[in-house]
Specification:
The protein is mainly alpha-helical. The protein contains 2 helices and no strands.
């Protein structure tokens, strides 16, 4: 079985996993972990879309 992901799907999974890890290792309470993890994930998504627009503008 071969797993085939698009670049976008792979980036979303990467952002999800990194956000979970950052939330777990940097905060002490469950509420702080959840808030920070969601915040990181949102920032990753915003950065992904921002960079995508820059790449689109750069390529014309």
């Amino acid at each position: 079985m071969k797993l085939s992901l698009t670049h976008f799907e792979a980036t979303l999974i990467f952002a999800l996993f990194i956000s979970v890890v950052l939330g777990i290792v940097t905060k002490k309470t469950d509420k702080e972990r959840m808030t920070y993890g969601l915040s990181c994930f949102g920032r990753f998504i915003a950065t992904i879309f921002g960079l995508a627009w820059l790449m689109k503008l750069g390529h014309g």
